[in-house]
Request: fold
Amino acid sequence: MLLAVEGLKMYYGVSNETVKAVDGVSFSLGEAESLGIVGESGCGKSSLAMALLKILPSNARIVDGRILLEGVDIVSLPEERLRRGIRWKKISMVFQGSMSALNPVIKVGEQIAEAIIIHENGVTKKEALERAANLLEIVGLDRSTLKRYPFELSGGQRQRAVIAMALALNPKVLIADEPTTALDVIVQAQILKLLRELKERLRLSIVFISHDVSVISEVSDRVAIMYAGKFVESGNAEAVFLKPSHPYTQALISAVPSIKEPRKTFKYIVGQPPSLINPPPGCRFHPRCPYVMDVCRSEEPPIIEVEKGHFAACHLLGG
Reply:
């Protein structure tokens, strides 16, 4: 297994309180496999992405769990080894918001080349720029993009440039955090197609994070549904989307409009996600669940294998 996350907990300290952003998450990722993580805003998806690279703000810490990348627990590695040998070389990230991920006063080619020069000894600037040009062509941009500033590019072009930067050191795992946010539907489809092609061409493993169920269904081999810092359901994408077992997954999918079905009243999930400072006891979805039982309010549901490789955490599945 290329990447294995076991019982990961990452908390923030805010005004003498603790925000349990990622609270006991486990999953695995194989070579050339894509895992889609979907959930509402504020459920901990981006926090999980930052934890996987250990690029945490000063008030955040990993309090428990392991992140095994090719068998090595990167949680315990010193920062220097992470910076020199892990980040961007083995696991990299496409950050949410391409414009904020690029320096507006430095040319695109120089920004990609800088990552190569810093992480690989003995590479000249000329060699790095040539590699940057090749990367830009891989993601569908002209070599002339090397000499252009980020503000000279469209939103889709900037996103492609950010993807090229993430691929600069040939990583095995790519984390894509909301890579299609703020893009129009046509450009969004182009970026999704590009990521699928890169996965096959480069044997790239991708963790794809989004709040958009339809986007996740387009790019993922497996899917994990995240709610209030936890995975409530996971499995093969087809099984999760066609036979959802957790009430939250069912509600998410039913809230997505379909162009094939007859026109009907738009569905939504009642209520708001809970505070991660003081999450509700038992099942964290119980205040919004239409099937809530007494046990849901007091006991955390066990993770049950609904069918081979398809898991859900719900008391309704316990018989």
